[in-house]
Write a structure and sequence with these properties.
This protein has helices at about 1-30, 40-70, 75-80, 85-100, 110-125, 130-135, 150-175, 185-205, 210-215, 220-245, 255-280, 290-310, 315-330. It has about 325 residues and is mainly α. Pfam families: DnaJ.
Length: about 325
């Protein structure tokens, strides 16, 4: 939900705030009766471009700070220990915190849930395998009940990471086909692959990772760094796609026909894939006339039933009553 809100914000906020600031700027700078630059004039475009760049940069800084500060406390923070803690220190801090949040001693509503969370954090950090997995994949490992070894956690975590990169890569590819976000597209893919390499290095061998980003966020756990890197990639390149064309305007307008042609190719590919799926689904009935006749009757009945369910409320009510009577008889 947060990602969608951020994307929605980047879609309209910079332009909206730019127009608002530009109007206020003109009211302050230009006195009554003076010629205020009008939309379309070179001076108006120059002011609009500068204010727009300023707004995007400020919004980018705000988004980055918000991403970093939105990360919830990790298990180390909850138990008040550093990443190089000792077993004695971990157990001592747990006992102190349990005395504070024990439901018999603390009447707050969140006391019991905090007490349970503290125990879960202790069990995770006290187990070398679970701690290894938690450092790399975060609290999601609590739901990976089938994992027993470090290798199990890495393989399952790889699947989740692959899903993110395949989805993001597909979106970038589609935007490229449609001609959207063309500014810096080469470097976008280069940095995208670089982030994937850094993430792989952090998961498999974090001690050997000496990138600038890792050094900058060294106080964060590995899974927190990965989350920040992903958010920074998305946020920065959205900002660049907004500012780039303004900083470096080009007179070469792309022919919309080429974009429509590329879109048509994608639609034809999807259409052919759907046809193949339908053919494979009906292949068992190809040479069986009786099966085809029976299938045709059932499909006609299904169409009629769907129509009645969607348009005839009396039929739906009678159908539900009949279903209830059938259940009662059973």
């Amino acid at each position: 939900m947060t990602d969608w809100l951020s994307f929605f914000g980047w879609s309209f906020l910079p332009s909206l705030v730019t127009n608002w600031i530009q109007n206020i700027y003109y009211r302050i700078v230009y006195r009554a009766g003076e010629n205020i630059p009008k939309p379309g004039q070179p001076k108006h475009k120059l002011h609009q471009r500068r204010i727009y760049i300023f707004v995007v940069v400020v919004y980018l800084i705000y988004t980055i700070v918000e991403v970093i500060h939105s990360i919830p406390p990790n298990y180390y923070d909850l138990l008040g220990v550093n990443q190089d803690f000792t077993s004695k220190e971990l157990k001592s801090n747990l006992r102190k915190l349990q005395l504070v949040f024990h439901p018999d001693r603390n009447s707050e509503q969140q006391a019991e849930s905090n007490f349970i969370l503290l125990r879960k954090a202790y069990d995770t950090l006290n187990d070398p395998v679970k701690r290894f997995a938690y450092d790399r994949f975060g609290p999601d490992i609590n739901y990976w009940t089938n994992c027993k070894t470090k290798r199990d956690y890495i393989l399952l975590g790889r699947n989740y990471s692959t899903g993110f990169y395949l989805g993001t890569g597909l979106i970038l590819f589609i935007l490229n086909i449609l001609g959207k976000g063309q500014f810096g597209r080469f470097w976008r893919f280069i940095v995208f692959c670089g982030i994937a390499c850094i993430e792989t290095s952090l998961i498999l061998n974090p001690q050997s990772n000496s990138s600038f980003l890792s050094y900058l966020f060294q106080n964060f756990i590995i899974f927190e760094r990965i989350k920040i890197f992903r958010q920074l990639f998305i946020t920065i390149f959205i900002a660049l796609s907004q500012v780039g064309p303004v900083l470096f305007p080009t007179d070469n307008t792309q022919d919309i026909r080429s974009n429509l042609h590329n879109f048509e190719i994608l639609c034809n590919i999807a259409s052919d894939e759907i046809k193949n799926q339908l053919r494979s689904g009906f292949y068992p009935f190809q040479n069986d006339q009786n099966a085809q006749s029976e299938l045709r009757k059932k499909m006609e009945k299904l169409v009629v039933d769907n129509y009645l369910h969607q348009n005839d409320h009396e039929f739906v009510q009678a159908y539900n009553q009949a279903q209830q009577r059938t259940r009662k008889k059973k």
